[in-house]
Structure to design on (924 residues):
């Protein structure tokens, strides 16, 4: 590693109040091309990191003595990538029940908080980090193979955290970032993971079931609203505590957004109408057919966290590339969106997902923002994350090139200003077996 | 069939019909692809190069290639031409389940019997540059069903899909799937094997039987050849015939596996019974025993970066392909999944990052290497004179996330043309709308007599069962609301 102690006299640095307190934990990344995502990329620029924050960024900055300098000539600096939908730390090995804590039983689990069950020593964390991802949101009941087919209506609270730290207390950015709602589906066909069989149901039955579930959800919100009203009067009235409804209070008060998983256009329409009626802020998760309701999403200012572009559209007669062209369609319609991996082991494909959307018409800068700034904005964390600006948390990556490209290497990675290892179990296994003596079989 | 169903059937045909336009066109006898960066795979890159196709075969490759006057010219300036992508592990174009999961040895069943040429996955993979796929039985059984190599000739009937002359194969499976660790066929009792020990014994048991069976046929044939009369032939076994073909080298073994121990197990069993394992599939721990795989001359067909979905995939590393290649194993990258197949070029490129593979070696893993693994490299896998004109034209270097397939050719015929596909979408949408309008009209007509009945009051209200009235189904739901 080319980290050198700087002996350079300070210039711009001197103006800063903390110049005297520069410590060995401070860094300057010098001579890099810096993609701040606020203004045009800075050629031969420097980022100064002090006390975990970005202290300065620009060209021709000099740095004070005692600061570790990384000569990043030929390298590029970006904000760390932010994967807003994962099961990070909630699932280690999808097929092994004992390692999976993604989905609670029963339809209503608003008091289940992801951060409670995130395993800080999960092997997935360093593996994901090596792909340049510095923050994630772990989302309970987010479906997929890891859920074992279980589903709930109110899935629990999603938590945002850094991919580094000894405990969740170090890692947490926001434990109660969003309330997960798994929007019901009219399921005429379903795939049962436990038996590996397809089950069919008449449409009318499926629709009835759907309507019933939506009604249940509305009732639950109604209960929660009443409960919140009682809470507001706590002291003057006596009431029986209900930890589940208590967890819903910030939602019905409009303080916590709901993260609604829905993919089909008609489900999205129903969900938007529901959230509008309930006066809660909705973030759409999944959105396979978001493009078909883009005007509605824009008019209601609903942001979308898109599931992977590298998938197959649900309808046989959909355009084959619809999932990949959809991001550019949303961009043109003015709908805010971010990319999510919706996974653990495939979280490292986040950049690839965005890159493929660029190949199908999405603006490059928009794609970059959709894996950095936009997830932060959608979750209300852009005050601290998402761009390289003075005062923001120093969460950034130093790369050999474009982070959306397949062959780009993450050379250095900073989380909360700390130079964080990109090593992991997979690299260790590679080293170990690359060193196996040649056998004479 | 009511009016709605008829329309639904018609609708289903729209997608197929329209997309098949390319396939239905007769290929011109000569095509010249001009001014492209040609990634030949076998002999380097040709800048501003041309490929001449004649009668479905590659007739010339180079710069300033002369073409017959009537040749159709494709100007590919700024674009990249590669051999067609070959997916060594696919389950597309199969009608119904890919697993005959009721028995541990299902060698009697054959994918060739259930080819579905209407599977939309064929078209989508073709649009991702795939021209050839090794269509495999599932991995539920230690010895699974017979497999089939196909070309993705979208729009052609089922009997035109098989890759002519490609050696047939059979699927084997080791580890968690055949021992039914993670799921079970509903309504069936526990099945032998339940351990990796049992998986080995299932295979040994089957080959012991197959050897005896072969011997009884060999004896019979010898006696008949010697002129002996009235010899009673042994009983045919549809289960053992394919295994005899394996012993005789007439059928490839494609073995699904994960862990290092089970990889070595199968190599031992193969040695004991005298057959060759043609490829290990998935082989996510192949990097641990790469020397042994290389020494056996067995190929490895693996994923780019899949891991952790089950215990036997926990030691999977994205360096697997590169490390096995460094140790002398012939490696391909496969999909196992219709969606993954649409970007196999990108999956191959990841080995340039994970393990420092060269650009050309990475591209080989989805072209020439799988062709060799499937024994079809004399026909496909590289851009060489005499080979089938199975080609992909990309707008960008295919080892990049920014590459999009522009055209896919099979046998010198353009089966996928992105521009034409996009241009045709409006007409397709209109046709769909028209059909829906027609359906609504028909449904209204059907409804009217009922309403008339109600008005006349000919039936007593309690006799009516409104909930049983055929309601027009929501179109979306009739055709797969599966998630």
């Amino acid at each position: 590693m080319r980290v050198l102690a700087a002996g350079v006299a300070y210039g711009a640095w001197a103006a800063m109040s903390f110049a005297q307190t520069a410590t060995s934990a401070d860094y300057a990344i010098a001579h890099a091309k810096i993609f701040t995502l606020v203004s045009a990329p800075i050629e031969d620029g420097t980022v100064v990191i002090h006390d975990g924050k970005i202290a300065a960024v620009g060209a021709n900055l000099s740095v004070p003595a005692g600061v570790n300098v990384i000569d990043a000539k030929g390298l590029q600096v970006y904000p760390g990538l932010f994967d807003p939908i994962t099961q990070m730390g909630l699932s280690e090995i999808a097929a092994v029940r004992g390692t999976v804590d993604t989905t609670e039983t029963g339809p209503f689990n608003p008091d289940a908080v992801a951060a409670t069950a995130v395993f800080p020593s999960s092997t997935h964390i360093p593996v994901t980090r090596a792909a340049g991802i510095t923050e994630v949101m772990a989302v309970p009941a987010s479906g997929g193979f890891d859920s074992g087919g279980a589903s709930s209506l109110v899935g629990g609270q999603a938590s945002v955290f850094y991919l580094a730290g000894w405990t969740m207390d170090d890692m947490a950015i926001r434990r109660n970032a969003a309330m997960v709602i798994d929007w019901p589906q009219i399921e005429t066909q379903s795939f049962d993971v436990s038996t590996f069989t397809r089950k069919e149901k008449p449409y009318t039955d499926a629709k009835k079931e759907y309507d019933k579930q939506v009604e249940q959800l509305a009732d639950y919100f109604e209960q929660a609203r009443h409960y919140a009203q009682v809470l507001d009067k706590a002291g003057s009235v006596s009431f029986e505590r209900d930890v589940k409804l208590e967890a819903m209070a910030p939602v019905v008060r409009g303080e916590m957004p709901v993260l609604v998983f829905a993919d089909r256009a008609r489900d999205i329409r129903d969900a938007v109408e529901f959230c509008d009626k309930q006066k809660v802020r909705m973030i759409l998760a999944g959105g396979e057919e978001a493009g078909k309701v883009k005007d509605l999403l824009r008019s209601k200012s609903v942001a979308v966290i898109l599931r992977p572009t590298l998938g197959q559209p649900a309808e046989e007669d959909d355009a084959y590339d619809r999932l990949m062209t959809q991001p550019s369609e949303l961009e043109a319609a003015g709908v805010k969106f971010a990319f999510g991996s919706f996974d653990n082991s495939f979280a490292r494909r986040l950049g690839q997902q965005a890159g493929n959307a660029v190949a199908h018409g999405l603006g490059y800068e928009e794609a970059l923002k959709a894996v950095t700034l936009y997830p932060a904005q959608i979750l209300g964390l852009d005050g601290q994350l998402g761009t390289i600006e003075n005062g923001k948390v120093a969460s950034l990556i130093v790369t050999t090139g474009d982070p959306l490209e397949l062959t780009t290497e993450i050379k250095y990675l900073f989380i909360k200003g700390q130079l964080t290892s990109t090593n992991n179990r997979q690299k260790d296994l590679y080293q170990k077996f690359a060193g196996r003596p040649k056998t004479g079989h | 069939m009511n009016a709605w169903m008829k329309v639904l059937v018609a609708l289903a045909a729209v997608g197929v019909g329209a997309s098949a336009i390319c396939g239905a066109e007769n290929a011109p006898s000569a095509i010249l692809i001009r001014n492209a960066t040609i990634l030949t795979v076998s002999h380097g890159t040709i800048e501003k190069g041309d490929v001449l196709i004649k009668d479905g075969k590659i007739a010339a490759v180079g710069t300033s290639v002369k073409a017959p006057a009537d040749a159709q010219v494709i100007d590919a300036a700024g674009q990249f031409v590669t051999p067609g992508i070959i997916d060594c592990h696919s389950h597309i174009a199969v009608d119904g389940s890919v697993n005959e999961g009721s028995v541990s040895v299902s060698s009697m069943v054959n994918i060739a019997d259930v080819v579905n040429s209407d599977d939309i996955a064929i078209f989508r993979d073709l649009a991702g540059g795939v021209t050839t796929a090794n269509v495999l039985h599932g991995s539920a059984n230690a010895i699974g069903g017979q497999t089939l190599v196909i070309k993705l000739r979208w729009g052609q009937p089922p009997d035109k899909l098989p890759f002519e002359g490609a050696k047939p194969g059979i699927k084997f499976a080791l580890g968690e799937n055949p021992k039914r660790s993670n799921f079970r066929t509903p309504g069936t009792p526990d099945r032998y094997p339940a351990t990796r020990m049992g998986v080995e014994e299932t295979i040994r048991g089957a080959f012991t039987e197959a050897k005896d069976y072969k011997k009884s046929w060999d004896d019979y044939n010898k006696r008949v050849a010697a002129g002996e009369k009235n010899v009673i032939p042994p009983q045919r076994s549809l289960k053992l015939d394919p295994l005899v073909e394996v012993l005789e080298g007439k059928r490839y073994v494609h073995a699904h596996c994960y862990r290092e121990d089970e990889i070595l197990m199968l190599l031992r069993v193969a040695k004991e019974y005298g057959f060759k394992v043609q490829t290990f599939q998935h082989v996510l721990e192949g990097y641990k025993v790469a020397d042994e795989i290389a020494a056996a001359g067995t190929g490895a067909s693996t994923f780019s970066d899949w891991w952790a979905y089950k215990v036997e995939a926990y030691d999977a590393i994205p360096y697997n392909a590169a490390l096995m290649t460094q140790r002398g194993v012939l490696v391909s990258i496969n999909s196992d999944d219709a969606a993954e197949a649409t970007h196999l070029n990108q999956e191959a490129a990841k080995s340039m990052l994970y393990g420092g593979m060269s650009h050309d070696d990475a591209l080989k893993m989805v072209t020439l290497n799988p062709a060799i693994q499937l024994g079809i490299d004399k026909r496909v896998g590289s851009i060489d004179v005499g080979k089938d004109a199975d080609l992909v034209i990309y707008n960008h270097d295919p080892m990049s996330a920014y590459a999009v397939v522009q055209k896919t050719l099979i046998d010198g015929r353009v089966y996928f043309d992105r521009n034409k596909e996009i241009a045709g979408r409006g007409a397709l949408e209109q046709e769909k709308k028209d059909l829906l309008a027609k359906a609504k009209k028909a449904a209204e007509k059907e409804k009217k007599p009922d309403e008339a009945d109600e008005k006349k009051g000919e039936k007593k209200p309690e006799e009516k069962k409104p909930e049983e009235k055929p309601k027009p189904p929501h179109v979306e739901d009739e055709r797969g609301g599966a998630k």
The CA atoms of residues 224 and 231 of chain B lie 7 Å apart. The domain at 1-83+381-444+463-483 of chain B is CATH 2.30.40.10 (Urease, subunit C; domain 1). The first strand of chain B starts at residue 30 and ends at 39.
